């Protein structure tokens, strides 16, 4: 009897899992793009360049994602200017609010990962690039960033898993992703244990697949070979 | 620069106090679970190693919010059954208890790894020295190993505590009157969501800064006698 219920609700769970994957995928990719300038500016030697990304990172890492989601989804509506702007159709939509907030949140963490990775690029390699006559930007593009990408990849894969778990918060702004769907189904069927456990198992499965994927990527980029100094 | 709180200031302070209580209660539970997990993972018995490994893998792979929901809504029948066994009618977990268990469980899973790392970093000779002095197993752990683990585990635990403090916001979902819940109530009354959620954000920032300062002094104290020699 219970199996029938599971089979009946399986399509809904898969729908929720698909939305979860969309949220995570969009935010970690957009977050990486946003984090690049942040991380580079953050590791600058000039205080004026460093200060702004530092404040951004401090705010987004020091406050809960839930607060940030509520600030964007509920908070922005407080301002007349936002409600009349061209962006309002997007800022009214919980889907885009979740994507925007999760992107800004994860960008702060990824920027810190990038800063650590950039600062851990062996100084000799940077000097060698400069000695070969590369300009600063050439050295950054051809030597420092590819090297930093390999140093930072394991930490980035951790961040992706953390964002997978953080995406559960999107259910608090009415999105029916995996957790939201499980809550809805549990409320319908009064089977809280079973439905939440099912959602948990799906999260575990997604995390496992992501981890295997990153392992393959690490092997392809030969991360191990680059760790030895 | 101080925003008009429409008289909700005291409510927010009460919420902050509730958040601090929840964070400290979860920390206490999580430290115990983490220590047990680390001991299980380094145990000579395969069963305990499996148990510790399963605990930290499963708990870390599932969102914290789902744990909060699972423990609050998912254990209603179980807890009621337990209550009837000992003769208490309508026994139920309060949001505070459910939040403490859920967050403690998550903290413990990550702390397992931190403690395990610290445990493995202690030289084998120390244990052997204890044995040679004729100390019992329990004594060696409590008087020799544990005090040394503290210093090694502290930075990792500090990071986990900052994460824990932000995760307390999740317990507002099951109705505990902490900072977020109080802000939501204030928003409903005042129709000023941005103001109140921003105030909430700055309260969390303040708590994070306080925790960072506390960690600085704890680490300094734990590291006394371990001043790095000039290289």
UniProtKB/TrEMBL annotation, chain A:
<keyword id="KW-0812">Transmembrane</keyword>
<dbReference type="InterPro" id="IPR043429">
    <property type="entry name" value="ArtM/GltK/GlnP/TcyL/YhdX-like"/>
</dbReference>
<keyword id="KW-0997">Cell inner membrane</keyword>
<feature type="transmembrane region" description="Helical">
    <location>
        <begin position="162"/>
        <end position="183"/>
    </location>
</feature>
<dbReference type="Pfam" id="PF00528">
    <property type="entry name" value="BPD_transp_1"/>
</dbReference>
<feature type="transmembrane region" description="Helical">
    <location>
        <begin position="53"/>
        <end position="75"/>
    </location>
</feature>
<dbReference type="InterPro" id="IPR035906">
    <property type="entry name" value="MetI-like_sf"/>
</dbReference>
<keyword id="KW-0029">Amino-acid transport</keyword>
<keyword id="KW-0472">Membrane</keyword>
<dbReference type="InterPro" id="IPR000515">
    <property type="entry name" value="MetI-like"/>
</dbReference>
<keyword id="KW-0813">Transport</keyword>
<feature type="transmembrane region" description="Helical">
    <location>
        <begin position="20"/>
        <end position="41"/>
    </location>
</feature>
<keyword id="KW-1133">Transmembrane helix</keyword>
<comment type="similarity">
    <text>Belongs to the binding-protein-dependent transport system permease family. HisMQ subfamily.</text>
</comment>
<keyword id="KW-1003">Cell membrane</keyword>
<feature type="domain" description="ABC transmembrane type-1">
    <location>
        <begin position="17"/>
        <end position="214"/>
    </location>
</feature>
<protein>
    <recommendedName>
        <fullName>Arginine ABC transporter permease protein ArtM</fullName>
    </recommendedName>
</protein>
<dbReference type="InterPro" id="IPR010065">
    <property type="entry name" value="AA_ABC_transptr_permease_3TM"/>
</dbReference>
<feature type="transmembrane region" description="Helical">
    <location>
        <begin position="195"/>
        <end position="214"/>
    </location>
</feature>
Automatic annotation (TrEMBL), chain B:
<feature type="transmembrane region" description="Helical">
    <location>
        <begin position="61"/>
        <end position="79"/>
    </location>
</feature>
<feature type="transmembrane region" description="Helical">
    <location>
        <begin position="20"/>
        <end position="40"/>
    </location>
</feature>
<comment type="similarity">
    <text>Belongs to the binding-protein-dependent transport system permease family. HisMQ subfamily.</text>
</comment>
<feature type="domain" description="ABC transmembrane type-1">
    <location>
        <begin position="16"/>
        <end position="215"/>
    </location>
</feature>
<protein>
    <submittedName>
        <fullName>ABC transporter permease subunit</fullName>
    </submittedName>
</protein>
<keyword id="KW-0472">Membrane</keyword>
<dbReference type="Pfam" id="PF00528">
    <property type="entry name" value="BPD_transp_1"/>
</dbReference>
<dbReference type="InterPro" id="IPR000515">
    <property type="entry name" value="MetI-like"/>
</dbReference>
<feature type="transmembrane region" description="Helical">
    <location>
        <begin position="91"/>
        <end position="111"/>
    </location>
</feature>
<keyword id="KW-0812">Transmembrane</keyword>
<keyword id="KW-0029">Amino-acid transport</keyword>
<keyword id="KW-0813">Transport</keyword>
<keyword id="KW-0997">Cell inner membrane</keyword>
<feature type="transmembrane region" description="Helical">
    <location>
        <begin position="194"/>
        <end position="218"/>
    </location>
</feature>
<keyword id="KW-1133">Transmembrane helix</keyword>
<feature type="transmembrane region" description="Helical">
    <location>
        <begin position="152"/>
        <end position="174"/>
    </location>
</feature>
<keyword id="KW-1003">Cell membrane</keyword>
<dbReference type="InterPro" id="IPR051613">
    <property type="entry name" value="ABC_transp_permease_HisMQ"/>
</dbReference>
<dbReference type="InterPro" id="IPR010065">
    <property type="entry name" value="AA_ABC_transptr_permease_3TM"/>
</dbReference>
<dbReference type="InterPro" id="IPR035906">
    <property type="entry name" value="MetI-like_sf"/>
</dbReference>
């Amino acid at each position: 009897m219970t199996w029938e219920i599971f089979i009946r609700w399986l399509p809904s769970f898969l729908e929720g899992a698909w939305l979860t994957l969309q949220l995570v995928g969009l935010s970690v990719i957009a977050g990486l793009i946003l984090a690049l300038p942040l991380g580079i500016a953050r590791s600058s030697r000039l205080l004026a360049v460093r200060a702004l990304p530092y404040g951004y990172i401090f705010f987004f890492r020091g406050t809960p994602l839930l607060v940030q989601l509520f600030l964007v989804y509920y908070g922005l509506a407080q301002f007349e200017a936002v409600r009349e702007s061209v962006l309002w159709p997007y800022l009214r939509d919980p889907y885009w609010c979740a994507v925007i907030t999760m992107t800004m949140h994860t960008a702060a963490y990824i920027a810190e990962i990038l800063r650590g990775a950039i600062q851990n690029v062996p100084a000799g390699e940077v000097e060698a690039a400069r000695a070969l006559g590369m300009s600063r930007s050439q050295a950054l593009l051809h030597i420092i960033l590819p090297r930093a990408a390999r140093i930072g990849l394991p930490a980035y894969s951790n961040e992706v898993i953390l964002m997978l778990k953080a995406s559960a918060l999107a259910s608090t702004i009415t999105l029916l992703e995996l957790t939201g769907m499980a809550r809805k189904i549990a409320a319908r069927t009064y089977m809280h244990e079973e439905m939440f456990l099912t959602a948990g198992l799906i999260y575990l499965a997604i995390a496992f697949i992501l981890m295997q994927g990153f392992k393959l990527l690490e092997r392809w980029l030969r991360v191990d070979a680059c760790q030895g100094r | 620069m101080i925003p008009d709180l429409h008289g909700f200031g005291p409510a927010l302070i009460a919420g902050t106090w509730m958040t601090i209580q929840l964070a400290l209660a979860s920390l206490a539970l999580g430290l115990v679970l983490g220590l047990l997990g680390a001991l299980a993972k380094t145990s000579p018995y395969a069963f305990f190693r499996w148990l510790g490994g399963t605990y930290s893998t499963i708990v870390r792979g599932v969102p914290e919010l789902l744990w909060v929901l699972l423990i609050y809504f998912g254990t209603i029948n179980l807890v009621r059954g337990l209550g009837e066994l000992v003769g208490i009618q309508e026994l139920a977990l309060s949001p505070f208890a459910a939040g403490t268990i859920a967050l403690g469980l998550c903290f413990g899973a990550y702390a397992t790894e931190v403690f395990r790392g610290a445990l493995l970093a202690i030289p084998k000779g120390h244990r052997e020295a204890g044995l040679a002095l004729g100390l019992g197993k329990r004594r060696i752990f409590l008087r020799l190993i544990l005090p040394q683990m503290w210093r090694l585990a502290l930075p990792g635990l500090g990071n986990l505590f900052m994460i824990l403090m932000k995760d307390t916001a999740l317990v507002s979902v099951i109705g505990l009157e902490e900072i977020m819940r109080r802000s939501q109530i204030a928003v409903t009354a005042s129709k000023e969501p941005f103001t109140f959620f921003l105030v909430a954000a700055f309260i969390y920032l303040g708590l994070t800064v306080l925790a960072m300062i506390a960690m600085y002094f704890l680490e300094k104290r734990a590291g006394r006698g371990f001043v790095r020699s000039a290289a």
